[in-house]
Design a protein that fits this description.
This is Haloacid dehalogenase superfamily, subfamily IA, variant 3 with third motif having DD or ED. InterPro entries: HAD-like_sf, HAD-SF_hydro_IA, HAD_sf. This protein is an alpha/beta fold. It folds into two domains: 6-17 and 107-226, Rossmann fold (3-Layer(aba) Sandwich); 22-103, no CATH class. 37% of the residues lie in helices and 13% in strands. The chain has helices spanning 38-49, 60-68, 73-85, 92-102, 114-123, 139-145, 157-160, 167-176, 218-225, and strands at 6-9, 16-18, 108-110, 127-132, 153-156, 184-188, 203-206. Strands 5-4-1-6-7 form a five-stranded parallel sheet, sandwiched between helices. A two-stranded antiparallel ribbon has the order 2-3. Helix 6 links the parallel strand 4 and strand 5 (153-156). Helix 2 (60-68) crosses helix 3 (73-85) and helix 3 crosses helix 4. The chain is globular.
Length: 229
């Protein structure tokens, strides 16, 4: 027996992954007038989804918004518009459009084993929570997938005013499940952000944020290895 009575799941790279439609980039050109090639598009995706550390040079107000990006919707927007501006997207209107695509919860793709894992956790009598550093509401992604009823609590950083790896957010999330941290397993793709939960007594299981079609059962394997289902 592991002693876990609840599981907290990260969102990005754990339960869902943002995999942009190539059409988002159609017609985009850099400052020199050349279209953004595949390598530039891949780098742009990395910069828009990196969990920690500024992906482009930032100072002053831009750096402030980066550090506060998951604590308010306004700062989230400001930070990522700055990233787009400094990642080869020259046109302001295109930056606004792309930010809209990147921040649309309905544009996220669910991992193949997400529903299986959430349902197995619930069937095992575990409390299930989603703990995400995010600047907008991701519940619609779960509703569209028909799995919102498998989640007991959503703890979203912009709603609670704390973001991983701040230990307070793990305390808030554990309390939301009605459990002490030592009875909670945190599952996520970042040892730095999600793994910080261990400092207050949570367990931690790590998954790789691979493309959806390259990770058919990685989440299931990680949770099973932790002994909770």
């Amino acid at each position: 027996m592991t002693g876990y009575e609840g599981v907290l799941f990260d969102f990005s790279g754990t339960l869902f992954r943002l995999e942009p439609d190539p059409q988002w980039f159609a017609g985009l050109v850099a400052d020199d007038g050349r279209p953004l090639d595949d390598a530039a598009q891949r780098e742009l995706l990395h910069r828009m989804t990196v969990p920690v550390g500024p992906p482009v040079p930032m100072e002053g107000e831009a750096l402030r918004t980066w550090h506060a990006r998951d604590l308010s919707s306004a700062d989230h927007r400001g930070a990522y518009l700055h990233i787009l501006e400094h990642s080869g997207v020259a046109d302001e209107g295109e930056r606004e459009r792309l930010y809209g695509e990147f921040s649309n919860p309905l544009n996220w793709t669910i991992y193949p084993d997400t529903e299986v894992v959430l349902r197995a956790a619930r069937d095992a009598g575990l409390k299930v929570g989603v703990l995400s550093n995010i600047g907008y509401d991701i519940r619609p992604a779960f509703a569209r997938a028909g799995i919102e009823d498998l989640v007991d609590e959503f703890v979203l950083s912009f709603e609670v005013g704390h973001a991983k790896p701040d230990l307070e957010v793990f305390r808030v999330a554990s309390a939301a499940l009605g459990l002490p941290p030592e009875r909670v397993l945190m599952v996520g793709d970042s040892a730095e952000a999600d793994g910080a939960s261990q400092e207050i007594g949570c367990g931690f299981a790590q998954v790789e944020p691979l493309p959806v079609d390259a990770r058919p059962a990685g989440l299931l394997g990680a949770v099973r290895a932790a002994g909770v289902i």
